[in-house]
Every structure is written in structure tokens, then in C-alpha cells.
Amino acid sequence: MTDDPIKADWQDAHDFDPRDPLFGLSRHELSGPRLSRRATLRLMAAAGTLTAAHLMPGGLGRAIAQAKTGGTLTAGWAGVAEIVTLDPAQMGQVLQFQITSNVLSGLTHINAELIAEADIAEGWEVSEDGLSYTFKLREGLSFHNGDAFDAEDVLFTYNRSKDPAQSIHSGNLANVASVEKLNDFEVRFTLKAPQASFLTKTTERASGRALTIVSRGALESMGLAQYGLTPVGTGPFRITEHQLGQGVVMERFDGFYDPERPKLDKVVIKPIDGAEPLAAAIEAGDIQFIGGNPVAAQLIDRFKANPDLTVDIKPAPGFQSVWINPHRAPMKVESFDKPLDELKAEKGFKVRLAIAKALNRGLYVQQARFGYAIPAYGTINPAMGFYYDEGIAETSEQAYDGKGARALLAEAGYPGGAGFPPLELIVRPSERRDGLVIANILKQELGITVNVATQEFSVMIDNFLKMEFDLRLGGSGGDYDPDDGIVDWMMTGSKFNGRTRDKEKYPFGYFADPAADALIEQQSITPKPEDRRALVQEANQITSDKVASAFLYHPVDVLIHHKDVLFPAVSRIPGLTDLDRVSLA
Amino acid sequence: MTEIAPSAPIPAERGPRARLGTSLAKDRKAQAGLIVLALFGFAMVFAPWLAPHDPNEMSLDMMQGLSWSHPLGTDDLGRDLLSRILHGTQISLFVGIVTVAIALVIGVVLGVIAGYYGGWLDLVIMRYIDLQWAFPNFIIAVYLVAVFGAGLVNVIIAIALAFIDDFARVARSMTLSLRQEQFVLAARGLGVSDARIIWRHILPSAMAPIIVQATVSVSYAILGEATLSFLGLGVEATTPTWGLILAEGRGFISQAWWLGVFPGLAIMLVVLAINFVGDWLRDVLDVRESL
Amino acid sequence: MSTYLLRRLLGSVLVMWAVATLVFFMLRLVPGDPIAAMLADAGSEEAAAALRAKLGLDQPLIVQYFYWFGNVFQGDFGTSIYGSNQPVATIIAEALPRTLSLAALSFVIAIAIAIPAGILSATKRNSLTDNTVSLAAFLGLSMPDFWLAILLIIVFAANLQWLPAIGYVPLSEGFWPWLEHLILPAIATGTAFAAIIARMIRSSLLEVMKADYIRTAHAKGLSPGQVIWRHAMPNALIPVITVVGIAFALLISGAVVVENVFAIKGLGRVLIGSILNRDYPVVQGAVLVVSAFFVFSNLIVDLLYGVIDPRIGYS
User: Fold this and answer.
1) DSSP state, A321?
2) What is the pTM of this model?
């Protein structure tokens, strides 16, 4: 990251008078439909979101060779029987916004380096105090149903998403104080506090969802249920058919703002549950592309050996942990709000640390993930590049050390696991195998018994949010910004942190540390990337050392398609499947 | 799922034991069935000694083919498949036998009460039995497991409840016909208590169809447990069950066919053996299969 | 006849009501909160409360029950609460043709195998053919249907790649695409059914052939074929019909399992998926329709029985 060209880009991006409303760019440079690399970098810098990772080679908006247009792509969506809804207000899964990212627009959209770029907004300006974002919208566009697009649609989407009765993402707009329409093609968002992740999270078209633009007219004419099946937007593809359990058909939308896109005429998406059927389908050529949930790890080597297939592996933006309930007996911790050394003298904490240290992540990755994962020690994932702490595997208290773990357990009064009560590890049905491997590792390393209990997702998440479990395997996906990891998971008030627990019985959820909270709050409003990184990594280190959870692994993002599907690097956004630049050979 | 209705009791010319012996000598299928069942019974009891490995011991030798150290290969976590199937015998057979025993006791009690006393008791019991009868046992078991949750005890309860109606119907129809028999009427006239009449006179005569029903039910219960486990609704003990082994291996069958073949083969062999024996018992005990 | 029919119909409706009511209350007494699942990814307490209120889940149970029942009488089964917001009626209407297609094809395949097999083994009693048929029937009855489904996928989809491994294509997209997706599931579902029917035909035919009138027919010099088709079969079919009723129920419960292996979103998959996700309105609707399936197939079999065997009176 110290290469000279990168430094030069960095300096150039920041080389403007902060008072200049155009960031030292000409009007021409700032106008759409496509921003230059220089302009984008500068906008990033101005918005405080530019990081060194963005400057890595192979980056922004690299023009792709003219590819043939037309044709139909048939895609399989892995690990799902039916795609229940595509209404951004109701979507909760990556496999859903992978599809809507092709159909609906946002004000911004992240690119392959996780940088926010203009999408249906042409550009934006940020006020000096970082509280006001003014978006200039693209003009002359229409929705798939023919309705014209203007600022009213942004307002409508905002009002819909902030209403908890209509949207499950209302919480993501909590920091927005107001939205005003300046004219038909300009809107201004005013924030309550500066937010570094505003452009990569809140206004993001795919994972963001709160400001993914929906069509007023279509919602009215179709009704909620039908809109959930065939949402209407302004994206490159329009959905022409969707039968639950059968799949989604998308066709090229001629009115997309970039006339060059999309390349394909038609995309057919079929949900395919189960590893074997998925493998059979792509090997037989029934499908040419795999999206949806992560592909079962045992298939990766098999696909790699297949000369017809391209297998591209990248770090995925997410983490998985073994959550340890601090309110249950052998691993009880009254409070995390004390220096680490004091904490380490407590019996309950010794057990927690013993479990975290005993996790032989290397063996786990081999056995449970067939080698396809990266050991984790915190929520900040390698896909975040710039913010990821390469050294944490060594510096964390959780670093694998079987001997040390056994010693801790003995100090806590359970030498060799003797007298240790059996614990229950709750997992989703699809993670049963992973649970068994964890139980086996803890048995081998510590001599303790862990029983794996499979629970349907609805039941498991209910128990997790109520803090009614011993151990739980689970984590997050689609974490593009540090906020997705530490704000959503590691703060006392994080949305998953014992949200529905009995507050009388359990004063906090799985973790609560004011020192970590302060750092996380601070990083959220720190615009300067280096400064933010320091805060992010410090917070990450605390949550790792104090065992907010026993961090296990970061998944990998595996893109699999037939060789005749041309998937350009610029579309290779971890976790997403943007098909607008994809073509067939 | 099949109901066995009695034909009119035929006075036995020879004792039933003698008939069992002579007919077994002629029935090769029954012989094979009994031998297979004996083998599985042996495996059930001695699994810990017969199994070459700990069924839960994992290794990085994942999905290894058949070999001397792993006669049926290893699974996706490097566990020895033969050892897992042997240990699986314990739960699969246990569930089959225990569920049917429970269903038999409850069902026969209900059926005899309904048939013997008639009136509103019969009406209430039969309404319930008819309700359950309208649905296949497996569907009822799915409902019950879904309501109670998975787990060994819940699966046993669900399967047992699902089979009650079969036994109740058989017991009721037997009781109804036996109630009018001379020997029962005579005993009543002599003032013998109802409990004694049922225990001494009705139950022994009704036993043949109940035994046949029980035999058939064990095979359905084993299938039911395997299916529930396969669908993720079943037993989740540390000891593997056949349905679970199949469910776990399902995602790996094209790389390791043995994971898809052997556990299913075990289920099929046991069920087949029970069906052979059940058929023979039906012949010998002269129970007509009417449904 | 008409009062009998009316009584039976009323009884059938009562059974369905009882099942629906039982399931309504039982499902609500077990853990697992659909709202928690919906809001798992994002959302707040207020969002959860608002959704609960919107779906009426904050009302007392008994109020929810009457509310639901009132709506059912108006043909409104409610909407799915697990993400999709789809009307339950739509979900079921989409699933129904898939299950019906599967059941119909399994039925046809099974009957096409069972009738000749049953007749062959009855007419050539104790021959090699008879023994083979009998053994095959035993195997068919003993094989777990989901295992057979897996074996079929290994052989015909994964290795030979003759037929697709999963999925369903509606008949409107062509006969062959529809058929090709259903062949393997139909075999997996229909095998046990075929075994039962074949065995029943055999034993029933053997029984009938012992009867005096068959001997008379033989004595009159009718050919064996004529005897079987004109005289023996009609009577032999009577007990078979009752078995068809029971076996049809087996076929549907088999479809529930097999649909899950082949990822066909029919009634069975809807039922199991909705139970697992605690999607109450869908469970209710699916239970009602599945119940109707069994209850009315029993009814039809009873009536058919009367048509075929005039000796049975309705009173």
C-alpha cells in the first residue's frame, strides 16, 4: 500500500480547496452518466470515504472490452428453495439483494473495491460539517412501468423506509434528521451526526435497502404482495415473471441510464436447494452461473477441476462466531467494564477465553470448510481491506493455543474438562456440520462436551436475541463498511446484542464495554481514513481480547460460472452478483 | 397404514405354536427375515464391541472410499461409516419397538373400552380415532414433531401417537365381535367382572391381529423415524441414526456414493425382514389383510 | 343415497374443522417467533411491535382464531407472514397443480405396473414370475421413498444425466419439460403404491378365482383371458378400490417427502416449510387443503365402492 502511484492518486484526490463546491473538478468532470476515476476518487475523498484500498490497481470503472450483447443467462440461486420477497423494505438476506441490485437503483452503489459510486444520483455534495448531503439526480429517467423518476420518488422511498410498520430497515435511517426536495432533481439529506458510512451503507442500493428506490405507482397498482414478487425500479433489468419456488425472470430494460448496459437480453434465476442438485445443474449446463447463498464448500474443488467452469475466490465481507452467553454458569461474566488483567483473573472469563483459545481455526477451516475460509479474530473482515488488521491473528488473546486453553480451564476449576457441565451449541440446520466440528474440537482440546442442537432460523434467532442459549454459531454477511461489523454487533446497544432479552434478568446482552462503545461511536464520525482505521482496529482488538464472542472464520466469496459467461472484474463486488456488465461469449 | 381386520376366529385344530413351527420350515422368506432380524438385534446389542471405530471420531480422512480400516468408507467428517451404521441400529430399532409398544398399549386400551362399553364412550373415542384415521400416520407425526420440536423423546411421542388409531380400530372391531360370543355372554351371566372378562377372554382372542398389526407397525415406525430424521425433524442424539446419516451424507453423494447407499440399505433390510416375518405371522395366525 | 351423501359431507367438513382448529392452537403454543425471524437482519423493537399489530399477532389467541375463521369463510386465508406477504390462497393455488401433477403421474405409473404384475403373479401362482413380482413388491414396500429418490438422482441425474435432478416445470411450458422433471419423483413416490396395489390385486384375484361362478365360466369353455377380464377382475377390484383410497393417502404423504428431495414446491413442501418457519397463516391454509385431500379421497372411495359393488347399500 505504499506504492508510488497509489500515493500520487491519494494526493491528487485530496488536492482541492475544501470550500470549492465542485471539489476542484470541472462541471463536466462531475456530470454523468459515468464519473471518471479521478472524479470518483475526489468525491470519495470529499465525502471522507476514500481509503487506500480504493486505490489498489484494478479498481474503479475500468472500461471493459466490447463484448457481444444479447442472449439469455440461466442462473441458479444456491441454498434457497424460494426467494420469498424482493421488496427492499422486507428483505433480510444477501441472496435477495443480489437480485434487486440488478433491478432497483440506489442513490449510490459500491463497486468492486467497496467504494460508493453514484448510481441513480449523478453526484453529491457534502457540507463542511458533514451533516448535509445534497444529491443531484439523473434526469429524464423512467421506471420499468413508464412512470417518470424524480425527487418525489426519493422522498416516497425515504418516508416508506423510516416507517417501522412498512419497513424492517427503519433503524438504518435513525441518524437522518430530515430529507428535503430542493427541486425535481435535487434532494438534501440532513444527518443528526456525521456518519462515515452514510454513502456505503445508508444510500447503498443493494445491501443498504433503506434508500433503494421503489416505485410509488407500481406499489399502488400492484399491491404489496405482488410488488414483493416483481418489484419495479429503474435498474438495468426489469422483472417480467416471478413464481415462488420456481424462480425469477428478468429482461433487459431499454430505458436504463447507461445505454451500453445491460448486455444480456434475459436472465432466468432458479432457486436450487441442496449441494448435489446445484452441482448436477451446473455440470449438466442447466445453469451457467451460481448466485445466492455461499456454495457448499465441498463442491469448490470439484468445480475448480471442471474445465468448463470458472471459479473465482475472494474474501467475503462477513464473519462467523461462536457466541458464548455471559449469563450462564461456567462462563458467567458480571461485567466486561474493567481492565483486561482484572477480567482475566475471573473464573467465568477464564472459561470464555479457554473456549476461544481452544478453537483450532486451522483445523476447523480444513474440516468444516474444506479449506475455504479465513480464520477470524474479530468482526472486521479482510474484504474491507484497508480496515482489516493483518496482525490480529498474533496479537489477539484469542489466538489458538491448545495448551494455554487447557491451563485456563484448569485454573477455572475444570482440569481436563473434569466436572465441566455439558453445553448446548445452537445452529441452523444448514450449519449442523459446522457445529459438529466445533464440538469435536472443543472435546479434543478441552475435554468438554458440547451438544449440537439444530434449530430453524426463526427459532434460533429468537433464542439468540433473548439471550437464551449456551453457545450459538452465527454471524454476519454483507459487511462492507466497518460499521456493519462493529456498530451492528459489538456495541452495548447493537441490534443483535440481546435485543429482546429480559432486561431485569440480564443487564446486558452478549457483550457490553463502554470503552469499546466510545471507540466505535468515535470511528463512525471520524472522516479521516487513517484516523478512522486506528479507532476501528483498537475497538476490534478490545472486542477480540475481551471475547465478545469466540470469533471463528471469515467466509470466502466464490463466484462460479461457465467459461462462456464473461464476468468483468469491475462487476466483481464481493457478495453481489451485478449482471449489468455481464455478457455471453 | 394398513389395517388388519380379523376374520372370524377359527377353532384351532392344532396349537398355534405347532403351526408356527411347521409353517416356518416351509417359509423361506420368513426364515431369511428372522435371520436378518437376529443379526440386526445382535448388532443393536453389541454395537460398541462390533464397531471398528468410535462412531463420532472425526479425522481429516474425509470421504475415503472402502478399505480394510474403513470397510464402508468414511463420511464427510472423516468418521467411519460402518461404525456409524452399527451404532445407528440402536436408535432406529429402539424407536421402532418403543413407539409401537406405546401405541399398542394406548390404542388397545382405547379400542377395547370403546368396543366393550359402547355408548358415548365409544362415540367419543371413535370420533377421535376417525379424525386421526383420516390422515396418514406420517403426516400426523410431522405435525406432532413440528409442534413439540425435534429430539428423541418427541419423535417417540409423535410416532407413538400417530399409530394409536391403527391399534384402537383393530382392538375395537375384535372386541365388538367377541362381545357377542357365547363364552363372553356366559361369563357375564356368571357375574364375572368386566376387567376380568376383558383380560381373560377378550384380549387373548384378539391378540393375533394385534400382533400382526404390531409387526407391520414396527417397520413403519422405523421408516417414519428415518424419514423424520432425514427431513431434519428427527432425533438429534450423539448416537447417529440411519435417517440422520443419510441426511448428513445427502450433500456428498456424488463424491461419496457409499454415504447415500449403505444407510438406506440398512433401513431397507430391516424393514424387508420385518415385512417377511409379518407376512408369515399373518398366514399362520390366519389374519386377513382387509385394508 | 342423498341423505347419506349429505351426512358424509358434513362429517368430512367437521373433520377438517377439527384439524384446522387443533393445528391453530397447537402451533401458537410452541416456541419460535416469526417476527423475530423477519426482523433478524435489521430492525428495531418498534418495527417488531408495528408488524405484530399489523398482523393481529398482538390480539388474544381466541380473537385471532375467530378472526381467522371469519376470513376463511369469505375465502380469505390471510397472507404469509414469513417475508413474502403473499396471499396464502395464491401460495396454495401455485402449489396444488405441482402436487396434483406428481400424484397423478405417480398414480398412472404405479397402476400401469401394478395391474399387469398383479394379474401375472395371480395367474401364474408360485411360478418364477410370481416370486419375482412378490419380491419386487416387498422391496418396493420396504424402501424408504426418500432413499429411492436419492438413488434415482445418483444414477439418472448425476451419473447418466438423462433427467434433471430437481425442479418443476408447469405443463404450460410443454409436455416433455413437465414430464422430464416429474419422472424421477413420480417413480420415487409411486413405488410403494404400486407394490401395495400389485399385492392386493394378486390376493384379491386368487380369492375370486376360487368362487363357483368362475369355475362355471371355465367349465363353459371361456378362455382364461375372458374369464379374468369379464368375470374375475370386476369382482377382484372391489377390495382393491378400498386399498386405492388408503394407498392414495400414502401417495400424498410420500409426495410430501419426495417433493423435499426434488425441490418441487408442492403442498408438502409448503406444509413442512411453513411449519418450520412458524408461518401460521400458511400452515393453517395448507392443513385445510391437505386435510381436504385425504377426507374427500376417503369419501370418493366410499362412494366408488358403492358404485362398483351394488351389494353395499347406503343407509
Assistant:
1) E
2) 0.80
Q: In this structure, which amino acid lies at residue A362?
A: G
What is the nearest CA distance from A360 to chain C, expressed in angstroms? 29
For residue B189, what are the contacts with CB-CB under 8 A and spacing of at least 6?
none
Q: pLDDT class for C125, splitting at 50, 70, 90?
A: confident
For residue B163 the three cell numbers come to 399409530
H-state helical runs in A121-263: 151-162, 216-222, 224-229
Rounded Cα gap, residues B203 and B116, in angstroms: 11
What gap in Å lies between CA A204 and CA C93, rounded to an integer?
36
A-C contacts at Cβ under 8 angstroms: 154
B253 vs C contacts (CB less than 8 Å): 150, 153-154, 158
**What is the Cα–Cα distance from A198 to A173, expressed in whole angstroms?**
10
- Which chain A residues are within 8 Å of B250, Cβ to Cβ? 274-276
> Which residue of B62, B232, B251 is in closest CB contact with A274?
B251
Rounded Cα gap, residues C193 and A411, in angstroms = 63
Q: How far out from the chain centre does Cα A209 lie?
A: 12
Out of B232, B267, B272, closest to residue C138 by CB: B272
**Which residue on chain A is closest to C86 by alpha carbon?**
A225
Whether C94 contacts chain A with CB within 8 A: yes
Query: What is the pairing mode between strands A116-118 and A121-126?
Result: unpaired
- The pLDDT of residue B11: 45
Cα–Cα distance for residue pair B206/B175, rounded to 1 Å: 7
* Whether C165 and A164 lie within 8 Å, measured CB to CB: no
Can you tell me whether residue A116 is helix, strand or coil?
Answer: strand
Please state the three-class secondary structure of B99-167 as a single string. Answer: HHHHHHHHHHHHHHHHHHHCHHHHHHHHHHHHHHHCCCHHHHHHHHHHHHCCCHHHHHHHHHHHHHHHH
Query: Which residues of chain A lie closer than 8 angstroms to B78, CB-CB?
Result: 367
Q: What is the pLDDT of residues C143-168, one digit of tens each?
A: 998 899 988 888 887 778 888 877 78
Per-residue pLDDT tens digits for A14-42: 665 554 545 555 544 544 334 455 656 66
